Amino acid sequence: MAVTKELTRLDKSNVKLSITVPKDEVRAKYQGMLKEYSKSLQLPGFRKGHVPQEVLERKFAEALRGEAMGRIIEDALQDYFKDEKLPRNERPLPYATPELQEEPKFDLESDLQFSVVYDVLPEIKVDKWKGLTIEYPYAEVGKEEIDKELQDIRDRNSVVMDKDESAKVAKGDVVTVDYSILDENGEEQPNLSRKDFAFTLGSGTNFYQFDDDIIGMKKGETKEINKKFANDFFEASLAGQTRKIKVSLTSLKEKKLPDLDDDLAQDVDEKFKTLDDLKNSIKERLEKNLEWRLRDKKVNELLKNIMESTPVVLPESMVRAEVESRVRKLARYYNTDPNMLMQMMATGEGHEEREKEWRETAVKALHSRLIIETLMEEQNIEVTDADLEQELEKIAKENNVEIEEVRKNYDEQNMFYLKEDIRERRLIDIMLAENTLKQGKKENYLDFMTDKV
């Protein structure tokens, strides 16, 4: 389609695209549509496919012109956006539909002029990313961390047995309870109730955190617990509230842990002959995980510094989409409906503060992502087919499977993600090499690995 186009940049990463479609194109599109309808419509007094075009115009002029204008606008936009040479910061974001500005005037004797406004990828200029001095926190793998892993292994290999009828709940026991959150009137709330909820005391899997409150209970007992919920509690309707939780203990079991010896090591994997073999393997794995986490910490501190000198204006649609994506991930983790979770987050005491925190997290993530993508483009980081093949071989070796099995899991989309991952890793290598990184404060290993520092 022969059209003229003009792009105007607005604030907040918006653009205005103005397009002019020549009147000859307008007439041709309109006549083509009339011909299409005259062959397919059936009106009283005319055979199907033999309705004169002038009759159609007389009866449906306004509707026909409206549809023709819609088709012309849609075709013109599609032609513009499908151009592979179109820069990324001129394309609409996938979650930002172009909005028509004012109703265009449709006249077969005049050019059709219209404008749309839409959000685009923000323009960002990354200048200060080399020669920086960054301090990063660190941690080390010690006896405490290895002992914790060994205790987890014992726990996974434990035997669960019923406790005596007269026994009381103790930390580490496996309990099954029926619970319900009571409202202000002491009535059970069906949407905040659950039956046959099993968990291990102290494991952290009881989101309502009444583990310590039921210590000392016996099987068959019921107890009402006063609970003060934190302002950032995941269940928005309870955040900042003090409520009673009615808990009935229906089952009480204890774990019999295996001895920490060579037999346990051999039960874990036949490649371990002694307990020391198992300990060495644990230490090696923890240190490898720590190495990757340490790299992430260095990158995060470096990006934090770069962001301070690299301003960016993010469109609202981009921030909103990032927040919604994070909510969906959280909903999958808790196995709940994302729409319900969004609604819960937007209501209740403290919801404004929660929304603010989520937005701030989303903005930081998008800001750092834009810096990474911009630098990957500027550094011309490319990944060849040979690079991809080498990465697939590495994945196969690490997982002890044939490479053909790995290839089955990498369709076109997954190969694209793998390619981008390799590009990003290469950029990170460059960034770390171009800056001075100093070891800072030593942190607790668990806090370090779980983002609490």
UniProtKB/TrEMBL annotation:
Transmembrane segments: none annotated. Residues 172-261 form the PPIase FKBP-type domain. One of its GO terms (cellular component) is cytoplasm. It is found in: Cytoplasm. It comes from the Bacteria. Pfam families: FKBP_C, Trigger_C, Trigger_N. Keywords: Cell cycle, Cell division, Chaperone, Cytoplasm, Isomerase, Rotamase. GO terms for molecular function: peptidyl-prolyl cis-trans isomerase activity; protein folding chaperone; ribosome binding. SUPFAM superfamilies: FKBP-like, Triger factor/SurA peptide-binding domain-like, Trigger factor ribosome-binding domain. Its main location: cytoplasm. Its EC number is 5.2.1.8. Signal peptide: none annotated. GO terms for biological process: 'de novo' cotranslational protein folding; cell division; protein transport; protein unfolding. It catalyses: [protein]-peptidylproline (omega=180) = [protein]-peptidylproline (omega=0). Coiled coil: none annotated. Consists of 3 domains; the N-terminus binds the ribosome, the middle domain has PPIase activity, while the C-terminus has intrinsic chaperone activity on its own. Involved in protein export. Acts as a chaperone by maintaining the newly synthesized protein in an open conformation. Functions as a peptidyl-prolyl cis-trans isomerase. Belongs to the FKBP-type PPIase family. Tig subfamily. This is Trigger factor. It comes from uncultured bacterium contig00007. The lineage of its organism: Bacteria, environmental samples. The gene is tig.
